[in-house]
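Quick one:
INPUT:
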């Protein structure tokens, strides 16, 4: 079964490029395309695509509001935000809201197609420029923690929880994590819930974002 993709972007040339790339992949199919947010929400409600590629600054309804709408309505579509540039606060808002990840419009189209597959399989997607932004924030956060004496989040996670967190960040499934760390899948699930609680997040993408921001993955 093919992965059904919806594309919403206000730039016709970029939209055509992504559309062409998706249509050339044997395991992907274009469910719909649009250049503005209201129509994107209508199409998502109607078609329930597997993956939505949504421009951050989409006219009428932006990408963050579309993610919020999908979450409120319980639609299972996974969303990847497309942007020319992204600030740390925007990345945090999108991932906390439930985005599967962030891609730069400068990324090669083959990388976009790979990201679609990864998001479909439940993995976190972060473009290189987004990772660079997070690394800058990590350095500042670590320095601020030293200056103010605020404890780093790594101090509140056990060694086992950090191991599970790193598995989440690498896209390793619960079953594979259980085999890798020699524990049951039920124990892995418990560790994940404890990690989410300690980090103050609701899901794996938000946990990965926080882990990168707080420099927990090294």
């Amino acid at each position: 079964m093919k992965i059904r993709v919806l594309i919403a972007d206000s730039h016709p040339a970029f939209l055509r490029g992504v559309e062409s790339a998706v249509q050339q992949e044997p395991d992907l199919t274009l469910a719909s395309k649009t250049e503005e947010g209201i129509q994107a929400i209508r199409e998502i409600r109607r078609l329930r695509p597997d993956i939505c590629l949504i421009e951050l600054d989409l006219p009428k309804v932006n990408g963050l509001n579309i993610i919020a709408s999908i979450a409120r309505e319980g639609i299972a579509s996974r969303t990847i935000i497309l942007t020319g540039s992204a600030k740390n606060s925007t990345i945090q808002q999108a991932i906390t809201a439930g985005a599967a990840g962030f891609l730069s419009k400068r990324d090669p189209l083959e990388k976009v197609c790979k990201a679609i597959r990864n998001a479909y399989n439940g993995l976190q997607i972060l473009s290189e420029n987004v990772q660079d932004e997070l690394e800058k924030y990590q350095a500042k956060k670590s320095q601020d923690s030293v200056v103010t004496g605020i404890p780093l989040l790594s101090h509140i996670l056990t060694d086992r929880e950090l191991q599970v967190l790193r598995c989440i960040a690498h896209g390793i499934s619960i079953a594979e994590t259980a085999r890798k760390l020699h524990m049951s899948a039920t124990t892995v699930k418990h560790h994940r819930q404890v990690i989410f609680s300690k980090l103050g997040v609701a899901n794996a993408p938000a946990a990965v974002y926080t882990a990168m921001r707080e420099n927990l993955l090294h």
